[in-house]
Specification:
By secondary structure, the protein is an all-alpha fold. It is about 65% helix and about 0% strand.
């Protein structure tokens, strides 16, 4: 598998998407409304907040229950929900969301907030059903979290998870063929059918590790073009830069490979990784017919390798030993083409 092992994480990968929703619902009511009903609920919710701030929870609850009846839009309902949660009224908070969803069945923000609520309540199976419509949307990470959580909880094989979910979500119980071992529970996440799940997680969270999981599985199947499509547009470490540079390189997209590598140049990292990083940069420049730039990187690479070999406390990696002769030959060929072998 390519650089960087997959590390499935089944909780709180959806926070980035959820924060945006709750931020919106929190401050929506501070804005002026052109509708009297909207203005009324905004005012009432403001009074609820004041009562909560004063510690008058009983009065706040009474007013919130009356105010709930005024909620007509998804954002208003989420405002009511948020205050029930603040008051520690989980049952009422859930009822407020379910009531809103009966009116707005396809509202993605409501589904996302309700799905996250269910995950907080450890109602994973129900969360999986509720959030399924979010797959492929900006809130897909919440569905991904539900799916990954369910996979960990059940210990099902990939065939069980992807083959029986259709029946599972309709209330029919299906049992896996056997109890999974710890190794099997982990290895299930290497199945290529998890690619859309990882992509959902990556879209919302912008965390490269999820996109790398998806890309690694595509590369495992030999689908380098699809692997490159998982790139989120940025890198967060030298290893991440090398990973995406390698993905694009294997897909034959040398410009994109070079861009990913150059984006990681300033990151720190072990010398062995820097050697591999520089070697791929040189290859990209060469294939893009930027010979002078390729030679500059090769010169830097030779300096790094020789400096490392001179270090008494560190031996050259097998990769460095393998790449050094190739770099020397390529550099010599370039200098010969310039009639400058004296260097």
């Amino acid at each position: 598998m390519a650089h960087g092992a997959m590390k499935p994480c089944a909780r709180h990968i959806a926070l980035a998407a959820l924060c945006a929703i709750l931020f919106c619902s929190q401050f929506f009511f501070a804005a002026c409304s052109s509708h009297s009903e909207g203005a009324a609920i905004s005012t009432e919710l403001g009074f609820v907040d004041i009562l909560i701030g004063q510690g008058k929870t009983k009065e706040a609850m009474e007013l919130l229950q009356k105010t709930e009846k005024l909620a007509t839009t998804p954002l208003e309902s989420m405002g009511v929900y948020k205050r029930y949660v603040t008051l520690g009224e989980s049952d009422r908070a859930e009822k407020a969301l379910k009531k809103a969803l009966r009116k707005h069945k396809k509202d993605k923000q409501l589904l996302a907030v309700y799905g996250n609520f269910l995950l907080d309540q450890n109602k994973t199976k129900k969360a999986l059903k509720v959030t399924k419509p979010l797959s492929g949307t900006e809130y897909g990470s919440i569905y991904a979290e539900a799916f990954l959580s369910y996979a960990l909880e059940t210990g099902w094989s990939a065939d069980d998870l992807f083959g029986k979910t259709f029946f599972l979500l309709r209330g029919k119980k299906k049992n896996p063929d056997h109890t999974a071992t710890a190794k099997e529970k982990f290895e299930v996440f290497y199945d290529s059918r998890f690619v859309p799940i990882y992509l959902d997680a990556a879209r919302s969270t912008k965390l490269s590790r999820w996109a790398r999981n998806a890309a690694a599985l595509c590369m495992k199947e030999g689908n380098f073009a699809k692997a490159s499509e998982a790139y989120t547009g940025s890198v967060d470490s030298l290893e991440d830069s090398l990973f995406w540079g390698s993905v694009f390189y294997d897909a034959g997209h040398y410009t994109e490979s070079l861009e990913a590598l150059l984006a990681g140049d300033s990151f720190p990292g072990p010398v062995a990784l820097k050697i591999e990083h520089k070697a791929l940069e040189a290859d990209d420049y060469y294939l893009l017919e930027e010979d002078a730039a390729a030679e500059k990187i090769r010169s830097e690479l030779i300096d790094v390798i020789l400096a490392e070999s001179a270090n008494a406390n560190a031996g050259l990696t097998s990769y460095a030993k393998q790449v050094l002769p190739v770099v020397y030959v390529n550099s010599a060929m370039y200098l010969k083409s310039k009639n400058d072998l004296a260097k």
